[in-house]
Structure to design on (418 residues):
């Protein structure tokens, strides 16, 4: 067996344990070094398993999709576990539904507009499509709520809020530039829907 | 039954997601419990994401694929009966998600070459081992990661499945749709290519340090 044959044979018997392989390896330091190096690569490869952490965005997207598909169902809450801070729902009462309601309103307006196929939106319509006043609800409230009820999730929520706000800003600027752009309007409504979902999830964590 | 065991039965909802056993989390996830879904995700996210990242060498694609793998898992979790290990089920599903993605992108999941004989490009080089930058000691994980990313997609798939994830050649042959001989051949070539890439990397570093 020569060096080329030895190298080819390693595909079938990778540890060089056949009689022919062993005879060649004893006589050839280069092939012997090659086998050691390949073994080192194999031994190191295991370190690549589970070596990387996904960004928080992945779980947030999964959770949003699970809720959208109805796979996450409301669970019985444990009322004995109270946080020292007043809860989001306690502070905002019925107003806590304004954000999801605003998103649904935007969706309904969008569907209505598409059906009507108006050539260009009026000022009133444009006003409806701009970000609504969330009746005082803001991102800080959401983060404060998450910090109180699920501190471990705070980073994920902050990151997801940042991304969804970016999406809203981008989509809004596209709508402002071209109010007839159906895709931009749809993107804006999707972004608001995602934001409303985040608020819903925060409230569900209580 | 121990007191602790009784508590587990009577107050299952009081457990934090991180305290759930895998079996408990699976049963609660079947009922639509958000914390259970998250507990399962937290337990397996690194393995699934790393698999996706190694096989695609692209962070954004890996995130999307990890998301898709978990979503598929959760949609099917009601059918899980525990005959096979949950992690085995999830990882097999993740591999299939990635392979499907690679096929959609028309990337080769494995080379078409079927025999263990090398092609002209891949045939054994007579001067292998001639350079003096030996891979002695240990291999830095980041260097190896980069080298794996630089492998041709077909080689990368087989290397990740066999050497990183621990699949056998017969399993790989079934997963990617090739012969066992082809899987062995591709793996050997992938390792040889990795060795070249790692040596080149070391030689570059050595050159830089000499200049510096």
């Amino acid at each position: 067996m020569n060096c080329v044959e030895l190298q080819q044979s390693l595909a079938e018997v990778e540890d060089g344990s056949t009689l022919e392989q062993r005879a060649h390896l004893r006589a050839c330091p280069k092939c012997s070094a090659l086998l050691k190096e390949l073994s080192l690569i194999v031994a190191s490869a295991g370190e690549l398993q589970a070596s990387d952490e996904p960004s928080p965005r992945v779980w947030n997207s999964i959770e949003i999709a699970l809720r959208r598909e109805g796979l996450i169902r409301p669970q019985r809450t444990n009322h004995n576990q109270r946080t020292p801070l007043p809860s989001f729902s306690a502070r905002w009462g019925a107003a806590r539904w304004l954000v999801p309601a605003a998103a649904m309103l935007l969706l309904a307006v969008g569907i209505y507009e598409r059906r009507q196929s108006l050539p260009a939106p009026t000022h009133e319509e444009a006003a409806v499509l701009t970000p609504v006043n969330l009746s005082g609800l803001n991102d800080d409230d959401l983060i404060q709520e998450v910090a109180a009820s699920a501190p471990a999730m705070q980073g994920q929520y902050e990151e997801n809020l940042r991304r969804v706000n970016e999406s809203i800003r981008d989509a809004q600027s596209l709508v402002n530039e071209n109010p007839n752009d159906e895709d931009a309007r749809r993107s804006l409504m999707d972004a608001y829907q995602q934001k409303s979902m985040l608020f819903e999830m925060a409230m569900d964590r209580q | 039954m121990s007191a602790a065991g009784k508590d587990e039965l009577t107050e299952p909802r009081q457990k934090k997601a991180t305290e759930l056993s895998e079996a408990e989390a699976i049963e609660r996830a079947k009922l639509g419990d958000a914390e259970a879904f998250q507990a399962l995700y937290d337990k397996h996210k690194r393995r699934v994401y790393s698999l996706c990242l190694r096989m695609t060498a692209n962070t954004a694609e890996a995130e999307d694929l990890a998301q898709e793998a978990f979503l598929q898992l959760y949609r099917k979790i009601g059918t899980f009966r525990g005959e096979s290990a949950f992690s085995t089920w999830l990882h097999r599903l993740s591999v299939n998600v990635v392979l499907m993605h690679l096929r959609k992108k028309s990337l080769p999941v494995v080379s078409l070459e079927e025999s263990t004989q090398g092609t002209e490009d891949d045939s054994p080089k007579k001067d292998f081992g001639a350079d003096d930058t030996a891979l002695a000691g240990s291999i830095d994980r980041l260097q190896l990661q980069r080298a794996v990313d630089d492998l041709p997609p077909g080689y990368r798939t087989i290397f990740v499945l066999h050497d990183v994830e621990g699949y056998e050649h017969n399993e790989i042959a079934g997963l990617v749709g090739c012969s066992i001989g082809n899987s062995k051949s591709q793996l050997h070539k992938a390792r040889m290519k990795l060795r070249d890439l790692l040596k080149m990397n070391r030689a570059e570093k050595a050159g830089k340090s000499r200049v510096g």
Q: What stands out?
A: Confidence is low (pLDDT under 50) at residues 1-14, 114-120 of chain B. Residues 11 and 180 of chain B are 51 Å apart (CA to CA).
